[in-house]
Amino acid sequence: MKKFVLVVAMFMFVCGGSIFAMAQDPVKTQPATEKTESTEETTTSEPAKEEPKAEETATPEPAIEPTPEPTPAPTPDTESTLPGVEWMQSFNGIIEEPKLVVFNDENNKKIIIKDSNQEVEFYDDDTLAIYIPDNNGKVVRELKFEDSECYDSVVIFKNISSSIMRDGYVSATIVDIEFDGKPMTLYCYLKLMGNP
After folding, report:
1. Integer Cα distance of 117 and 174 in angstroms
2. What DSSP string describes the chain?
3. What pLDDT, in 10s, does the model give residues 106-132?
4. Does residue 92 have a pLDDT over 60?
5. Distance between CA 101 and CA 67 in Å, rounded?
6. Among 133, 130, 122, 166, which Cα is nearest to 148's?
7. pTM above the 0.85 mark?
């Protein structure tokens, strides 16, 4: 271990000393080259000629085109003042798969249920509706509502059965539909609030 320390110390002394000497007096090592250069300049009476430079051809840089930011897909306006059924019929060309929607025309409530685990407060005067794009399907089964009506691309359900508890009871709501000739099930959780 002592030998290693001595070797490291000696290495630092030798290398550090030469670097320190160059850093301390750089003029002593460089004047000789400067003097020889200056004497060469004084002996020649002709000015130094510049070497002809090869003509630089300007290569145009490829234009960097900014990548266009993707335009967000249009979404239905949940602040729309259209009545619920008309508002849902405006989904054509915007929404391409069946969706459950809760709306209330009296207070302009409009909620598109995006996730099957989504919980939505549902009052007795609210309406549960299903949007079926391009009127390309039908409701096969729904059990909780007493009234239903069909419109172009929209099926609405009103008057949830009075046998179902209210006051914040969360009810899993399942609607079986057929879309594009294939069976499909839509889910959501309605938090039944009763009368507003």
Report:
1. 11
2. -HHHHHHHHHHHHHHHHHHHHHHH-HHHHSHHHHHHHHHHHHH--SPPPPPPPPPPP-PPPPP-PPPPPPPPPP---TT--S-HHHHHHTTTTT--S-EEEEEETTTTEEEEE-STT-EEEEETT-EEEEE-GGG-EEEEE--SEEEEEEETTEEEEEEE-TTS--TTEEEEEEEEEEETTEEEEEEEEEEEEE--
3. 999 999 999 888 999 999 999 999 999
4. yes
5. 36
6. 130
7. no
